[in-house]
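Progress report, Aim 2. The chain analyzed during this reporting quarter is listed below.
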Amino acid sequence: MMSPTPDEQELIDAASAARANAYAPFSEYKVGAAVRDDRGRVTAGANVENSSYGLTICAERVAIGAAVAAGAKRIVAAAVVTDGAAAPCGACRQFLFELGPDCRVLLVGADGAVRSARTIGELLPDGFRLAR
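Predicted C-alpha cells for the chain:
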C-alpha cells in the first residue's frame, strides 16, 4: 500500500463520499469515483444500477460525464473506491483514455487504502483516440 499525496487524498475522499450515495440495489456493489481535470477541479460520481441492467452506469463514467458538463476538457487523475480496490471495467478505461490518455488512476479499497496507482495506458494498453 502507498501513502497518497494531499491531491490524491482529496480525490480519494471525494470518491469515498460519492460511493456512499451509490444506487446499487441489485449487486449491492457500491463504487465511487472522482476525477481531477487539468484546471484542478475535482468531480465525483457513483454507480447507478437499473432494472434494465444494460442501462446501469459505472461511477467512473458518471464522474467523467459530470466533469465534462462542468467544462472539463482533460482528465489528469482519477480515484476509484470499491470493495477490493477493483480496476475500472473496459468501457470506463476507454472513457478515461479518451479524456486523459496520460491519466493516473488510483485503485482504492473501501477502507481508503491505495492498493495500486497506474496510468490509464497501463490499464488500457493500445487504447485509441480519433485524431483531433
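The chain has a mean pLDDT of 95. The radius of gyration is 14 Å. These observations will guide the mutagenesis work planned for the next reporting period.
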